[in-house]
Amino acid sequence: MQRVRILAAVVAAIVGVMLGVNPAWGATTDIKTSGLGLGPFPYAPDEVLVKFNTALPTTVWLNAFGAAASLEASDYLADIHWYVFKIRDHMDVPQKLAALKRMPGVEEVSANGGGETAFTPNDPYYSDQWYLPRMEVPQAWDHLIAGQGDGGVSVKIAIVDTGVYDNSDLGYVHHYNWTSGSDVDTCGSSGHGTMMAGIAAAAASNSNGIAGVAYASPIYSEKVIVGCSTVYSSWVSNGITAAVNHGAQAINASFVVSDSAAVRDAVDYAWNNGALVSAATGNDGQSNFNGYAPAMYVHANAVGGTQHSSSECRDPESNYGSPGVDVVAPSRDIWSTNRSGSVTHWGTAGTSSATALVTGAVALMYDHYVTITPSSIKSKLHLGANHVCGQSGYSSQLGYGRVNAYYSVTQH
Domain 2-113: which topology? Predict the structure, then answer.
């Protein structure tokens, strides 16, 4: 009965358009930008995302809706019930969103918001992974893994990023591509996604390259970025939900994308299915990261960066403040795998590398606690973090502090 009423309303809307009296395409001055994917990054100029107030509208209903709104369905984000539509008239995206919000049966809308990777790479070599002892990762290894005769961590890590090159220090990588480009990590000379994979999960004690925090974890590469900067909300949403469906519990999002309700729903989907998305706050040095998804969402684990210094104060480039940093990790002088099969050192790796370090710690926690929830993971990260740079409690610049992998896996 509900669908009949909605379909009748859509048909009425079509008739109204024909008669020139439909108010759906009225003034746009009252449109709200929050969650609409309209900024701060460019959005797809000819696409919109729509969520209806019924999870599975009929084909007849969709066709009628598309005809009324001058849209053509091009993709369906099945796990979170969002549709991607191509705009078939000359209306620009903000106007189309304003109009769609008034259409019968529409629950939420969003632009297919873009984004960028959260790092600034460079290539000077540095001979020691100083940040692992600082985060007490070796102590966590001793507590969880050493002496057990196993090959590392079994928890699946998803690198939602630019793709991951196969590298002898990474073991087997499962590849999935949600973009319009080829499944190749072409970001920079070394590869952004490949770098994140190594930081989080490179093999240890194999006389090769570096040691990842959750060493030898199975890696699921969910490619959502073409080059270093072409990324859309639908790709990100598909990458996150697919990572969950592939069984990944520790999900790494070392990028920022425009605030979109579809991306929010994907983060919630992970949370509700026992997985945690750790996300970079970005590298603009801003006192807030509102509008920067997925880090801005309450069910994400928002990660900022710290300097390579004894005080471990906030990296000047790391975004902080509202809506709230969860934890921080080192973001400078980081070594990792590259797409040529060896390793590269980044002097200024940014919140991307900090996020990958935290994702590795999260994987250690899932490996240890087994049945732990994302909420408990965040709580233990908060409680186990070290206060740095003179902080005495929660800090708008540093969140609950710099992640301590050992304390995070020894709490009861």
Answer: Alpha-Beta Plaits (3.30.70)
